[in-house]
Specification:
Layout lengths: L2 H51 L9 H13 L2 H15 L5 H15 L4 H12 L10
Length: 138
């Protein structure tokens, strides 16, 4: 007679475990998407500034510019702070508030954006020595 009681309890536990795993995965997915959006936006901003600083606005974006932008962003001290901030946000986020993640992305971008060419030049100075402007696409 215990079997009819055990089956619903077991099924309930399985569903609860499944929901918990989905909940954890949703937070990880949110964190990864937010990080991707912020990092891509900041790298694109660096590319924009680099094209202006190097006076190559009228040329196609080269592999060299992309590598320089990624290297600049990777050496940029804010990268770890941004990743930590997004991770903390995702861990505490209200997943039912659809606009909260968007608002957090906007806030992170405002706090992290490059405000001038001089600021970028200071960050990119070491990387410019290794810059290869005409590296070809394969």
């Amino acid at each position: 007679m215990t079997a009819p009681i055990a089956v619903p309890i077991t099924a309930t536990v399985v569903v609860i475990v499944w929901l918990y795993e989905m909940y954890k995965e949703t937070r990880i997915t949110l964190q990864r998407l937010m990080t991707y959006i912020v990092q891509l936006t900041l790298i694109m901003q660096i590319i924009f500034w680099l094209q202006g600083a190097l006076k190559i606005e009228d040329q196609e974006i080269s592999i060299g510019i992309i590598k320089l932008a990624i290297a600049t962003y990777s050496r940029y001290g804010e990268k770890e702070r941004i990743e930590r901030r997004i991770k903390e946000y995702a861990a505490e986020a209200n997943l039912t508030d659809r606009d909260a993640a968007f608002n957090e992305i906007v806030a992170v971008l405002k706090d992290s954006r490059i405000n001038s060419g001089d600021e970028l030049e200071e960050r990119v100075r070491d990387e410019l020595a290794r810059f290869v402007p005409d590296e070809q696409w394969n």
